[in-house]
Amino acid sequence: MDENLDDQNRLRNSNKLKYAYDNFASGVGYIAVTLANGNESIGSCFHIGEGIFITAKHVVENCTIKEIGTTTYQRAYYKLQDSRTTGMVRANLEYTPQATAVFKGPFLHPDENIDVAAILVPDIKAPALILGDHLDDWLGDEYVLSDVLVMGYPPIPFSPKPLLISAKCEVNTIVDKYTGGHPHFILSTMARGGFSGGPVITEQGIVLGLVTESLGVNNQPTELGYLSVMSVEGIYNCIAHHKLIPKFIDEQWDGFWSKVETWYQNSESEHIVVTLYDRPDNANVSISSFRADILDIVKKTVMDLFQNSFVFEQVHDMFFRFHYAFKQDDTIKPVDLYVMINDIVAKFDIPIL
């Protein structure tokens, strides 16, 4: 690596939202679609890693996706040894505009009322936007009156091609809609068709949520409603349901979004936890308990039946795992083993929490 391209030499814009734009604008894309009635439309999406793009469900549902693309260059500027005297810097072109009609999906949120979808676009190389960790139960008013950046592709009259629109605005409030779903942030900027599916980024460079709708009444025009941004938990739930968790997100959350757990407990000293960790490249089923008799039965049953499909690991006396071997001829998958172990535990009549 060129020493001049070291991150310590990178020039950073003092405007935090402009710096966020410089880092992430080339990771925000458009989705061109043909609606069921034959009309053409456009929405927005953004990259979260490993070719996974997030958008609003209504952008891609019941329509034909024609093209997915990005339009913005990402340039980074680095100091040189003589920058102070010459004023010259080095520019490095890290990402360029791209477009493709090759994709997998869309993968819709399992709850039809949650407006989120994911699309796998392996041919587009783009920076990964960083999802925030502010889950629903942790949200208060900490983001109210904070400055944020919204990006997307509202169509511009007379423009021959999609153009990325960026707007600096602030969070006015957060609302739990009486119709249900995840919390929504209300932003101060004007709502426009085409922003749907686009990201909203904080000054800290994290995704606050994605644009889903204009909140209005009596079928008033989109521009007269409040720009509404759904918080990130719905995104996590969608990609977890379809097993599309990028590896770096899985590591940040210590496998949280790739796990399913069943808890059994009679008392503090008598509890059992059965856990399924399931990713395309790594999967295991674990069980922990103070009940040695249950652990012995589980271990013997699994090893007698499936020792060629799973590798046993004794973590400690009361906790062990069965690691999936990923053999092509396996007749049992990790989720099947998870169900089987729960069936064994259920025979001991220990209540599920």
How would you describe this protein?
α6 runs antiparallel to α7 (334-346). The chain has 353 residues and is of the alpha+beta class. It is globular, with a radius of gyration of 24 Å. The longest helix has 15 residues, at 292-306. It has two domains: 3-237, Thrombin, subunit H (Beta Barrel); 254-346, Gyrase A, domain 2. It has helices at 16-24, 57-60, 83-86, 233-241, 247-252, 292-306, 334-346, and strands at 28-35, 40-47, 52-55, 63-70, 74-79, 89-95, 99-100, 104-108, 117-120, 130-131, 147-152, 165-175, 184-190, 199-202, 206-215, 226-231, 259-267, 270-279, 282-289, 310-316, 319-324. The protein has a seven-stranded antiparallel beta sheet with strand order 7-4-1-2-3-9-8. This is Serine protease. It comes from Sphingobacterium humi. InterPro entries: Peptidase_S1_PA.
CATH topology of the largest domain: Thrombin, subunit H
List how many beta strands DSSP finds.
21
What kind of assembly state do the chains in view correspond to? Answer: single chain
Helix content range: 10-25%
Task: Count every helix, treating DSSP H or I runs of 4 or more residues as helices.
Answer: 7
**CATH top level assignment of the largest domain:** Mainly Beta
**Unreliable residue runs:** none
H/E series:
HEEEHEEHEEEEEEEEEEEHHEEEHEEH
Mean pLDDT: 88
Structural class computed from helices and strand pairing: alpha+beta
Total number of domains:
2
Adjacency order of strands in the biggest sheet: 7-4-1-2-3-9-8
The CATH architecture name of the largest domain reads Beta Barrel
Strand content: 35-45%
So what's the overall shape? globular
Give the biggest beta sheet: 7 strands, antiparallel
Report the C-alpha radius of gyration, rounded: 24 Å
Quote the distance from N terminus to C terminus. 53 Å
Protein name: Serine protease
InterPro entries: Peptidase_S1_PA
Organism: Sphingobacterium humi
Pfam families: Trypsin_2
